[in-house]
Amino acid sequence: MQKIDIFSKWDKYLFFNIWKGMLVEPIYNESVASELQFGVEQVKVVLDLITEGATVPFIARYKKEITGNLDEDQIRSIIDTQKKQENLFSAKQTAINGITELGKMTDELMANIVNATTLKQVEEIYKPYKSKKKTKAMIAIEKGFQVIADMMKQNITSMTITKSEEFQKLLSEDNTEEEILEGSHFIVAAEVSASSILRDDLRETLQKYGTIVSKIKTEKALEKLNEKDTAQIPKFDIYADFSCPIFRIKPYQVLALNRGENLGIISAKIEKTEKTYEGLRMNYSRTLELRSQFTQILEEAFKEGYTTLFKSVETEVRGILNELGEDDAISAFQSNLEKLLMTKPEYGKNILAIDPGFASGCKIAVLDNLGNPLEFNKIFLHAKDRAKAFLKSWITKYSIEVVIIWNGTGCNESVDITQEIFDGEIFIVNESGASVYSASKIAKEEFPDLDSLDRGTVSIGRRFIDPLSELVKVPVESIGVGMYQHDMPVKKLEEKLGYVVEDVVNQIGINVNNASSYVLNHISGIDKRSAKKIYNHRPYKSREHLKKQLSDKVYELAIGFLRVPESPEPLDNTDIHPDQYELARYVIENCPHLASPKGRGIEQFFEENKTKLQELFAEVTAWTVEFILESHANIGYDPRVNSSHQKAWQKLDIKTIKQGETFDGVVRNVVAFGAFVDIWLKNDGLVHISQLVDRYISDPKEVVEVGQKVRVKLMSVDEKTNKIQLSMKEAE
Hints:
Layout: H1 5-8, H2 12-19, H3 28-36, H4 40-51, H5 56-62, H6 64-67, H7 72-101, H8 107-115, H9 119-130, H10 136-142, H11 146-153, H12 158-162, H13 165-171, H14 177-194, H15 196-209, E1 211-216, H16 219-222, H17 227-230, E2 241-245, H18 251-263, E3 266-270, H19 274-287, H20 296-341, E4 351-355, E5 362-367, E6 373-379, H21 384-397, E7 402-406, H22 411-421, E8 425-429, H23 434-438, H24 441-446, H25 452-465, H26 467-471, H27 490-508, E9 510-511, H28 517-520, H29 528-536, H30 543-546, H31 552-558, E10 562-563, H32 581-590, H33 601-608, H34 610-616, H35 622-633, E11 646-647, E12 662-671, E13 674-678, E14 685-688, E15 709-718, E16 723-727
Parallel strand pairs: 4-7, 7-8, 9-10, 14-16
Antiparallel strand pairs: 1-2, 1-3, 4-5, 5-6, 8-11, 12-13, 12-15, 13-14, 15-16
Helix pairs in contact: 3-4, 3-7, 7-9, 10-14, 11-14, 14-20, 15-19, 15-20, 18-20, 20-27, 21-22
């Protein structure tokens, strides 16, 4: 975050106002625009629209004329930055008020708080003063030892200090020589640890030249771990004796170190070095305008203050690294989730869904071509002949076209049985989150008369029919297309992944007559109540017909994202908003570039017809014209074109597969260091980034994405840890 100009203008008037507790609040339109490099008017428009109740998808699609064509991510960056700046201002105000009320405010502290650029910095500055317990330095100041501390900072020897008039005066007030020197020592140390100059210097030094190291904990410490955590120890072998410059450390390595520490397996820290100490010591000498050689008494005080400062700055730097790690992990999660949600739906087929199991049997369910459950039952894998006979009877009875099997325990055996009696297609579906959904409030509302196992089986079948509709019901952190999601702040993760769901649902263009209420709930401007109301009054003949179920505001925000293919008005099956219909008809009729909407002629058409276009739609720009032409050219278009469903093809066992064999697989997860591929084993195999293609790439997303079907070669298997190493480039 850039420093707000007004905070750096330390004239007497401003200082007086701040000192009195009246911290000047920034003008957010200007400060946000400065930080993000947007126009002030762009920021103002976005924030005003949000205040008026507009949604991000609505603004991005239908207000581009006044926002300057900002997309969803840019709009959210404006909103998030304002919130961040507001929170920072509030934290600064709280710190200033708190320290001032204690009577402890100084010019140095004020400068530290005002110029802080993160919440973490403010928290670290304020932390010592939030404690009800007085510090040793505070007590020493109350006793009047500040004058002696100031003499120490002038590099005067202890012998000379003790002979001074000031020191003798304090002695006469029943203070011992040892108490005065020790208390003054505490004051200097506290000032060193609170110095904004030294803090900034140390933070910059550690970020540029520091090294983070980790060690495996002692055997005695590891023995205290529970069985579950003990099993995790081999995963952290690489961090048992780890060292990496801070500027080179990868975000996923930061998160791995954090997890290892939280589990109690490793200890990690930023390495203290003599070079760092001496550099900061020299800076302190210059600040005090002293020669580099300290007296012993000042040296000791500085060393103590440095230790405290280092610990505080280490916490701050690791906090910065952690935030970068979280942001990177969430970004990867967002990308993976988007690809998964964009999986092509498969309506129109009767489905037999199987949730495999041994002891308790396999739950089975029949779903009609719209995903409605028709009947449930159970088969047992150990009674193979009976199971085959029953499945065969149901396949015939319900004209089953596709069998869907969850990829859990018993999957292979279920496939074997099904293949013997069914000639149609069998697909394996990833179960991640299905069990969470089956026990959720949403599932109970949707199927109040079913038990959780039956709900889960229905969900498995529906994931094939319409992945988006089913996945929106699952908590995003349970979908299983990220790493370290359980280590993320829940609120932050849900918010960021919620953006993906919102964008995908609104991008697709939802058929209002076949969408579930849970999908409708993610449409711009539609809440849970409105979604149920829309759902319960289907079918709709047109957008005008749909209007009867919506308030004016909800209609404005939502209608452009809801399609009615059955409507006699063709534009009702496009992304064009009804407010733009008159304009759209004129553009479609008169623009000669319909076949090629991105043609150079759009700007020319707009300029030649500007007066007429603005009569029809006041805010029209060339962007509007282009949007209308693209939308009209794609009437009824569904951007979900790729299927990620994996066909059952052969039974694999980690004990029998051999190095050098090749397999067909599906990418289940893309991370910074590679991609995890499902080749129909219990665990996915890793294709390291170096094994993706025969050339250098910096990001796996350059060549693979979630749901992509790939050919891989088995490079190695570790049966002890179940780690599988694969290669795509060697399989070519």
